[in-house]
Prior knowledge:
InterPro entries: Cyt_c-like_dom_sf (IPR036909). This is Cytochrome c domain-containing protein. With about 110 residues, the protein is mainly α. The chain has one domain. About 50% of the residues lie in helices and about 0% in strands. The protein has six helices and no strands. The chain has helices at about 1-10, 20, 35-45, 60-65, 65-75, 90-100. α3 (about 35-45) crosses α6 (about 90-100). The longest helix has 12 residues, at about 35-45. The chain is globular and about 35 Å long.
Amino acid sequence: MYIISSAVLLIACESRTYEEISDKTPVAEQVTFNKDVKPIIDANCISCHSPGSQALTDYGQVKNNIDNIINRISRPTGDPLKMPQGGSLSPTQINIITKWKADGLLEN
Length: 108
């Protein structure tokens, strides 16, 4: 009986990596601000980062703050500096913003 129970436990347990369970939605060939990044910013950031000293309402503001944005959206859950506050972007959204920087911060 012990052997059967052990076998069932071993079969039932599986080990999967983060990459295997994360969002695998492909990112567009070339990411641009207007097409790919702006909708993410508008939906997740504008409510707190509207006109003012920390505004993220246009291409120039997001481009000039991209390193800080990537740092803040990539922080672990529970980190008080993680953005957006009270939530998180999906892995695909984070990948789009990171790829936008890698692609050269294209506007259109």
